[in-house]
Specification:
The complex is a heterodimer of chains A (234) and B (274). Chain A is mainly alpha-helical. Chain A has one domain: MetI-like fold, CATH 1.10.3720. Chain A is built from ten helices and no strands. The N and C termini of chain A lie far apart (48 Å). Chain B is an alpha/beta fold and 274 residues long. Chain B has two domains: 128 residues, 3-Layer(aba) Sandwich (D-Maltodextrin-Binding Protein, domain 2), CATH 3.40.190.10; 113 residues, D-Maltodextrin-Binding Protein, domain 2 (3-Layer(aba) Sandwich), CATH 3.40.190. Helix content of chain B is 43%, strand content 24%. The radius of gyration of chain B is 21 Å and the shape is globular. At the A-B interface, helix 2, helix 5, helix 9 and helix 10 of A face helix 1, strand 2 and helix 8 of B.
Amino acid sequence: MNSLVEAFGAAWRLIAGFDDELAQVVGLSLQVSLTAVVIATLIGLPIGAMIAVERFRGRQTLIVLLNALMGLPPVVVGLVVYLLLSRAGPLGSLGILFTPTAMVIAQTVLITPIIAALSRQIIEDAWREYDEQLRSLGAQRLNAAMTLIWDTRFSLLTIVLAGFGRAAAEVGAVMIVGGNIAGVTRVMTTTIALETSKGDLPLALGLGIVLITLVIVLNALAAVIREMALRRYG
Amino acid sequence: MAIMMRRALLVLALSGLLQAPMAAAQQFITVASTTSTEQSGLFKHLLPVFEKKTGTQVRVVALGTGQALDMGRRGDADVVFVHDKVAEQKFVADGFGVQRFEVMYNDFVLVGPKADPAKIAGGKNITDAYRKIAAAAAPFASRGDKSGTHAAELRLWKSAGIDPQTGKGSWYRETGSGMGPTLNTASAMNAYSFTDRGTWLSFRNRGDLVIVVEGDEQLFNQYGVMLVNPAKHPHVKKDLGQAFVDWVISAEGQKVIADYKIGADQLFFPNAGR
């Protein structure tokens, strides 16, 4: 109990005395996870939409596979990306191991299946509902997919937020491919892991509270934007 | 609105992506080192002095010694700064390191609960203490992660004539993690644990643990530094890496190491070239 009280004290001191080091760690967390979620959306959303509206052999298998990939363990993703980017690995010549770029790659791999699988589900449900309507209008599948994405955009926003949440909360992958280098690849979650290692549990938990607060603020922002958009477009 | 937001996010994200290579414009080296040097705070004290002097940023990836050497073997580090003499000599002999230099030493200590179930507190002989822990089957938290500290712990069990694996699952508990997490575990279980003094001094979550055995010569913990062999990995930053190695073992680097203290305790004792 005592350490929980201490943790809130530590969190408060961290926020009140927001210093450069914390700002950098928070900034990098946001930079890496937002970049990853944007790339994952650009890749995952078209894949999800395509699977939702197309009918082809092996579709069911692909859906099962995609759903299963939502549960990819971050540590495994981290290890695979590490082995690919390591100097001894196939992409070693790029020299991007232990950089934020490597962390973006790992998180993108981690959340693309989430965005693809969930958007597939939502777009497919909408497709069932509007199937005949869209067909009677003579819409091509591509156009149909675009329309459905636009129609379900608010549900899709929730998926993007879920992807961001997963990316920002993840520690196993970024620890391995980023190396938790102070000032270069140290993000919120790896800092928390480090402080836990040092036995400074209140500071670790305090940082955790800061991270959760940050995620809440971002989600609230998204909710506000959604509300405004709903009012404008009905 | 949603499109605008997405565009804004995209711009933000892409600018973020572009920043990464730009930040790399400053020259830097990557050093694979151990959790003990990082978590004890030595690097935070040592590296800024070097960075200010040379303009070379030192990026430290802190792992167990086994993993750190493996990073060097794969060519993912320019310099390796670790503490397992036998493994380091093999690393150099196998051609992965250029030349090994001794840098400094600190010592290991045995920590344990105040209640002291094995009756070893105040002892000066670590192998004696190990035999008593095994005889009493008192809980012992081991790193179990092939780190330098783990290797040292295992060598001492061996010279005590005990195979701790016989106690596995009962009193001998391998955490498979770094020094800090292992101490967290020991603190929660009131177990004995073998740790480097630096990590112990900077460790906050001690609970009932205190130092029970220290000062035995067998607890001496030597650190070595070496450049990863550019002949094996041509991209190794030979000049910058060697400059760091040379500085750490120079009179100036050695003095900065000696100056690092937590409270009144000096953590590392420089002994390069001796």
